[in-house]
């Protein structure tokens, strides 16, 4: 059972999401605006937030970095009616862990929530060191020369895969199979995440092997 905040201004959509999540044994709170969302987060962090991007008092995409700073261990799944890839990618770049495009079946959202929470339970308290980098598995945190680098859930999973196999070159399909598993994703999303990781790590620490895939530097 997890604590989940559903931020959605359409009452009927919010009601359906809450009903399905509660049926899946989660504790659910709701908010219908950015202001109400922060009121709830001030009371304490949640395990996961389901965040509609277009809210009456603003674009919630711009709030994702603030949420991430306030609650660094929270999972963020954004709901968006925007179908353009650039909007989905922007949400991921801002720090979201996953997205669901409207219209969607509530069971799909519940499945995404389950997948996120399973990953949280999988990671024991351990550290993996590679040269000047240290991955704190339970914290989902990367240290480079002892300086913190915050990671989204998917960024962390990609790095965990690479850290556990530091000499292996992974193809895009291998990364998709390991990190996204049965989720509907294309090879392009791997490149998007690798680009985001390079900005955080530096190009020399994450190497492209042309015609093959990626490995740690």
Overall SS class: alpha/beta
**How many domains make up the coordinates?**
2
CATH superfamily of the largest domain: Response regulator
How confident is the prediction overall: mean pLDDT? 85
Spatial shape:
globular
Q: How would you describe the overall organization of this protein?
A:
- The protein has 217 residues and is α/β, with parallel strands linked by helices.
- It has two domains: 3-121, Response regulator (Rossmann fold), CATH 3.40.50.2300; 124-216, Orthogonal Bundle (Arc Repressor Mutant, subunit A).
- It has helices at 11-23, 34-43, 64-70, 85-94, 106-122, 153-164, 172-180, 187-201, and strands spanning 3-7, 27-31, 48-52, 54-55, 58-59, 75-80, 98-101, 127-130, 133-136, 141-144, 147-150, 206-209, 213-216.
- The strands form four sheets. A five-stranded parallel beta sheet has the order 2-1-3-6-7, with helices on both faces. Strands 8-9-10-11 form a four-stranded antiparallel beta sheet, covered by helices on one side. It has a two-stranded antiparallel ribbon with strand order 4-5.
- The mean pLDDT is 85.
Descriptive keywords:
217 residues; alpha/beta; Rossmann fold; Arc Repressor Mutant, subunit A; 2 domains; 5-stranded parallel beta sheet; globular
Task: Provide a brief overview of the structure.
The chain contains eight helices and 13 strands.
Layout: helices, strands, pairs:
Elements: E1 3-7, H1 11-23, E2 27-31, H2 34-43, E3 48-52, E4 54-55, E5 58-59, H3 64-70, E6 75-80, H4 85-94, E7 98-101, H5 106-122, E8 127-130, E9 133-136, E10 141-144, E11 147-150, H6 153-164, H7 172-180, H8 187-201, E12 206-209, E13 213-216
Parallel strand pairs: 1-2, 1-3, 3-6, 6-7
Antiparallel strand pairs: 4-5, 8-9, 9-10, 10-11, 12-13
Helix pairs in contact: 1-5, 6-7
């Amino acid at each position: 059972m997890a604590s989940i905040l559903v931020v959605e201004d359409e009452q009927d959509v919010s009601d359906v999401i809450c009903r399905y999540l509660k049926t899946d044994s989660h504790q659910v709170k709701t908010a219908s605006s950015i202001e109400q969302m922060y009121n709830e987060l001030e009371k304490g962090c949640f395990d996961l937030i389901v965040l509609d991007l277009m809210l009456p008092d603003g674009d919630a995409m711009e709030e994702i970095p603030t949420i991430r700073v306030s609650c660094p261990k929270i999972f963020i799944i954004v709901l968006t009616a925007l179908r353009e890839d650039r909007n989905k990618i922007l949400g991921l770049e801002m720090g979201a862990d996953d997205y669901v495009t409207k219209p969607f079946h509530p069971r799909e959202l519940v499945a995404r929530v389950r997948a996120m929470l399973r990953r949280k339970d999988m990671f024991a308290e351990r550290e993996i060191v590679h040269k000047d980098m240290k991955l704190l598995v339970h914290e989902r945190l990367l240290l480079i020369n002892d300086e913190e680098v915050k990671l989204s859930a998917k960024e962390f999973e990609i790095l965990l895969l690479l850290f556990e196999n530091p000499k292996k070159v992974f193809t895009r399909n291998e990364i998709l199979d390991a990190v996204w598993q049965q989720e509907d994703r294309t090879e392009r999303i791997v490149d998007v995440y690798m680009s985001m990781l390079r900005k955080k790590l530096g190009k020399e620490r994450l190497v492209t092997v042309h015609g093959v895939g990626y490995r740690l530097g």
